[in-house]
Design brief:
- The chain has 116 residues and is an alpha/beta fold.
- It has one domain: Transcription Regulator spoIIAA.
- Helix content is 34%, strand content 30%.
Amino acid sequence: MGEAVMTTRRQADGAIVVDVRGSLDAATVGALRDTLLGTVQRERPLTLIVDLTYVTFMDSQGIGTLVTGYHAARETGTRFVLRNPSEFVHRQLRVTGLAEMFGLPPSSSPSQTYTP
């Protein structure tokens, strides 16, 4: 089981960014779920960006947590954006058939933001 660090910040345009670093697995997804759901419920931002640039590993529980965040955001009218998924993360989302739901292109392209 890995470790993950999450930080939250507000951009000048009002969007809230959750920066995730490390592994998203059974040991770490609870913190991400709490961060995503808490941010959506408390802040109700127009846009919630999850920056995955430094996510080195993600299992099915990590994918499930992103799906949970996506649905919670949609319920409150918040736009849910995945930013810079690594090739590994992008591949995991493609294999599970969820890449399209998150608005990801057929292949990973660094330094792009994807929006559903």
